[in-house]
Amino acid sequence: MNSRCASVSRLIPFSCVDGPGSRLALFLQGCNLRCKNCHNPWTMGRCNDCGECVLHCPHDALSLSAGKVWWQSDVCQQCDTCLQMCPQQATPMTQTMSVDEVLHHIRKASLFIEGITVSGGEATTQLPFVIALFSAIKADPHLQHLTCMVDSNGMLRETGWEKLLPVCDGVMLDLKAWDSACHLQLTGRDNAAIKRSILFLAERGKLAELRLLVIPGHVDYLQHVDALAAFIHRLGNIPVRLNAFHAHGVYGEAKAWPSATPEDVEQLAQGLRERGVNNVIFPALYL
């Protein structure tokens, strides 16, 4: 029995967009960045049971009892009012799940998936749980064929990666801007630790994919394309996935930002190709 628990915002039994093949995707609550362009902004914070959401729920699906917010899933209409009102950028709909409970879902899906991906929020903010979950999968004869991957922002220190990598098959990691000042403007933190993580993982053969999000007028990849391409060359033949920003689902000032067009993405791809970066993956979808 493994009763170590995590705060989970969502579990998707079958996903084809969270890593290679069909995968079970587990989204953990909480993040150590505050990205203006985040498409899941309610996964950033942790509910502190302030009750603000209870006051605004139009369907009476939330209540405050014994100092705790309670969510009634059978009454909820998924209108997202609570998400938009939360001052913590959290959600009252998180579940506390143990390793054993997650394993139960994995076993039900195991014949139809190639692996699991733990995402967020930021998965590594609940690192002991991720390590315990991956260790249990690797130790189970019926599950150990599944690959265990993490979708991360890269803010984890090297000591944390060293604990995780023995049971992790790969990490998909975002580099949200090249220059630290631009990254700070977008996310609230600089990117020095993220660049260290990218190099650390690549050196150990654990960097599965580097992701660049094209946001017209708000990212600086093209201004620093020489340095960016040189950095990518240091990683080996790692796939570089170009994603296209769209404002659907974001809050705050980013709702007014322009969506990335195929031309915007091609401009960056061409700049990288001209500098010898050829393992580029284009967006599957533009909105």
TrEMBL record:
PROSITE patterns cross-referenced by the UniProt entry: 4FE4S_FER_1, 4FE4S_FER_2, RADICAL_ACTIVATING, RADICAL_SAM
Necessary cofactors: [4Fe-4S] cluster
InterPro entries found in the cross-reference section: 4Fe4S_Fe-S-bd, 4Fe4S_Fe_S_CS, Aldolase_TIM, BssD/PflA/YjjW, Organic_radical-activating, Organic_radical_activase, Radical_activat_CS, rSAM
Pfam families, alphabetized: Fer4, Radical_SAM
GO molecular function: 4 iron, 4 sulfur cluster binding; metal ion binding; oxidoreductase activity
Keywords: 4Fe-4S, Iron, Iron-sulfur, Metal-binding, Oxidoreductase, S-adenosyl-L-methionine
Domain Radical SAM core: 17-278
Keyword Oxidoreductase: yes
Alphabetical list of Gene3D superfamilies matching this protein: 3.30.70.20, Aldolase class I
Domain 4Fe-4S ferredoxin-type: 38-65, 67-96
Recorded family membership: Belongs to the organic radical-activating enzymes family.
Protein name: YjjW family glycine radical enzyme activase
Organism: Citrobacter gillenii
